[in-house]
Design a protein that fits this description.
The complex is a heterodimer of chains A (325) and B (359). Chain A has 325 residues and is of the alpha/beta class. Helices cover 38% and strands 18% of the residues of chain A. Chain A has helices spanning 6-20, 44-48, 60-72, 91-104, 134-138, 151-163, 211-227, 244-254, 269-281, 303-309, 313-324; strands at 2-5, 24-28, 53-55, 76-80, 114-118, 144-146, 168-172, 180-183, 196-199, 204-208, 231-235, 238-240, 257-260, 290-292. In chain B, 43% of the residues lie in helices and 10% in strands. Chain B is globular and about 65 Å long. The chains are: A alpha/beta (325), B alpha/beta (359).
């Protein structure tokens, strides 16, 4: 099994799907000649040529809308947003057109489009470039949302997303791009809507997605080393569809829940999860559900303070201990 | 409507009647064009009555006065040509051949509607006829139109997309982004501006700087203008740009000058931004159905008996559509969460797991 970077895992998924299906087109700002702003698409132009790997102008509403239109006729565009933060200038195209066109046509149309790129804070680029819109996208029926935390998950989920006949928002993380992990040499797919237990435990369930999973795993290790507490870490991987069964099974095992995400707290993914858990597993809970989210302000620039603003292992540890009191 | 030819001023051939494209039409083809325009008008008049009788909710943007634009354009479409438009979409839907019954039922919010009652007036679609909507947000459909053209070019098909918008859409950013991409990548798309003079209640003079179609020059695109009350002229003009798209994969912008008699929507009392005499003047001199009727009478293609027959049939068809809509069932509560995800609608092919709908 090869050990590769998260960005390479995404690149391999793109290359395999480009190879497999002539309708797959990779499109976005600097994806071709520049080799990708984060080098995710490095080498793809050379391998697949300019018809399949397409540099776009800085024009997100234009090229995302164009991709949606092309997808209605069977093209499978995989569109890179240099930052997911830039989705807001294409909001109407993504969340009115891609999300709604199937419904408004009474099921006559579908949009097999993937929009992917990093959607995270923590890189000292200020509030405009640090949005985490997985909750906003997941709020729109018709849209699917995926947030992989590891190279293995990123590859398997992206391949499934590209083959999916519905619009999938695929949210990566610039801080994870250099992370390495084991990825099988043979082809594999990970279905959307399937969570993964990244760490087994008995005393507490920590539910997270994206880079918060990595922070939660670090916190779980501290809990074990310093407090002899066994925390289970459930990585949602997919926000919508959501693997409710795996979350609830873990809650029924540990009886205590901490929800961790880089998103802002108000109407975040954790809000939906907290509702769901109390609705379906109220009698299994031995303590109130707690959350760790980004501190509730626009993303701060100041580098040391941005670390504080996002969930980090010490904040997660402290919250975990409060759930266990 | 359906004034006798003798009611109008002395008839002159419409300027484009001699265009080879129009001259080669058979009498039946000409009558078909006329009939579709009449059917659009009668359908919309009937739908307005249904609206006034509270059978229809929300908005109803009527196309009355603009019929020659959709009919002229859609009469040119070949196998791989596609169209997409905005919310004033009834004319386009009928012009591509959609049946009036599901169109009316859609307005009534019924399960037998063309979008199963899920889209409403602004959201008609028929991909089987290369008609991709029916879009509610001003200008939002234009990047999609460029994308349809992109797909055609990618697939190596000889076809084009007519992407319709109103004059109010030309100031939207998405339209300019689509112009740039279409010109940059030489996509076979014709951006058709149906300029009826008003973006809702704001006149062109109060909303748009410069000539609307001339903005194409900034993107290095071909452009043109024509009068939209003359179906022959619409055909002759659009066909030139359609050929450019077909033969050279060149995009273009065409401004078609037209007019609507009714308010922006039924919610528009239409007494604040234009005069009744302006409407009457257009109706008297440029009504697209009357103009074409006069033309076809002078050509000896139509006579009074045929005019009357076509009108009677169109009224009956519209009434039957309304009866069908009235008699049809509403969608059920269970239907609300169908047609959201392709995958949920095709359970045997479902690959995802987990929960997709929430409470």
């Amino acid at each position: 099994m090869a050990v590769i970077q998260y960005r390479e895992a995404i690149r391999h998924a793109l290359a395999e799907e480009l190879q497999r299906d002539p309708n797959v087109v990779v499109m976005g700002e600097e994806v071709a000649q520049f080799n990708g702003a984060y080098k995710v698409t490095e080498g793809l132009l050379e391998k697949f040529g300019p018809k399949r790997i397409v540099d776009t102008p800085i024009s997100e509403a234009g090229f995302i809308g164009m991709g949606i239109g092309a997808s209605m006729l069977g093209i499978r565009p995989v569109i890179e947003l240099m930052f997911w933060s830039f989705y807001s200038v294409a909001f109407d195209q993504i969340l009115n057109n891609a999300a709604n066109v199937r419904y408004m046509s009474g099921g006559q149309i579908n949009c097999p489009i993937v929009i992917r790129g990093p959607g995270n804070g923590g890189t000292n680029v200020g509030a405009t470039h640090s949005h985490t819109p997985e909750n906003i996208c997941a709020n729109h029926p018709g849209i699917k949302v995926v947030c992989p935390a590891t190279p293995y998950d990123a590859k398997g989920l992206l391949k499934s997303a590209i083959r999916d006949n519905d619009p999938v928002m695929f949210m990566e993380n610039t801080i994870l791009y250099g992370d390495k992990g084991e990825v099988p040499d043979e082809e594999y797919l990970i279905p959307l809507g399937k969570a993964d237990i990244k760490r087994q435990g008995d005393d507490l369930t920590i539910v997270a997605h994206g880079r918060a999973v990595i922070s939660a795993l670090a916190a779980a290790q501290l809990l074990e080393q310093e407090h002899d507490i066994s925390a289970e870490v459930v990585d949602l991987r997919s926000i919508r569809p959501l693997d409710e069964a795996t979350v609830l099974a873990s809650v029924r095992k540990t009886h205590r829940v901490l929800l961790v995400e880089e998103n802002k707290p108000f109407c975040g993914v954790g809000a939906q999860l907290a509702y769901l858990i109390q609705d379906k597993a109220f009698d299994d809970l031995d303590a109130p559900i707690k959350r760790v989210s980004a501190l509730d302000a626009p993303a701060i620039y100041s580098p040391p303070m941005e670390i504080e603003q996002l969930p980090h292992p010490q904040r997660i540890l402290k919250a975990a201990l409060s759930v266990l009191k | 409507m359906s004034k006798k030819p003798s009611d109008t001023a002395e008839h002159k051939d419409t300027p484009a009647s001699g265009d080879p494209l129009n001259a080669q039409l058979s009498a039946d083809q000409k009558i078909d064009l006329y009939r579709v325009m009449v059917r659009i008008r009668r359908f919309e008049e009937r739908s307005l009555r249904a609206y006034q009788a509270k059978k229809i909710g929300g908005f109803l943007h009527l196309y009355i006065g603009q019929e020659a634009v959709a009919v002229g354009c859609c009469s040119l479409l070949t196998k791989n040509d596609h169209i997409i438009t905005a919310y004033r979409d009834h004319g386009h839907a009928i012009a591509v051949g959609m049946d009036l019954k599901p169109l009316m039922a859609e307005l009534f919010g019924k399960a037998t509607g063309c979008s199963k009652g899920k889209g409403g007036s602004m959201h008609y679609f028929d991909p089987s006829r290369n008609f991709w909507g029916g879009h509610g947000i001003v200008g939002g459909q234009i990047p999609l139109g460029a994308g349809i053209a992109y797909a055609l070019k990618y697939q190596g098909k000889k076809g084009a997309c007519l992407a319709f918008m109103g004059d109010g859409a030309v100031n939207q950013g998405a339209v300019h982004e689509a112009y740039n991409l279409a010109a940059l990548w030489q996509l076979p798309v014709i951006f058709v501006i149906e300029n009826n003079g008003y973006s809702m209640g704001t006149s062109q003079a109060r909303s748009s700087a410069g000539e609307l179609a001339r903005r194409a020059e900034a993107y290095g695109m071909d452009w043109g203008t024509c009068d939209g009350h003359d179906v022959y002229e619409v055909r002759a003009c659009i066909n030139k740009f359609l050929e450019l798209a077909h033969e050279n994969s060149k995009p273009s912008v065409v401004e078609v000058r037209t007019y609507r008699y009714r308010g922006h929507s039924v919610a528009d009392p239409d007494n604040t931004y234009r005069t009744k005499s302006e409407i009457e003047e257009y109706r008297k001199t440029k009504d697209p159905i009357q103009v074409f009727q006069n033309q076809l009478v002078s050509e000896g293609v139509l006579d009074e008996a045929r005019i009357s027959q076509i009108d009677t049939e169109a009224r009956a068809e519209a009434d039957q559509a309304a009866d069908f809509a009235e008699a049809s069932p509403y969608p059920t509560v269970e239907d609300i969460t169908k047609d959201v995800y392709w995958e949920e609608d095709h359970p045997s092919e479902k690959k995802s797991e987990g929960r997709i709908f929430f409470d």
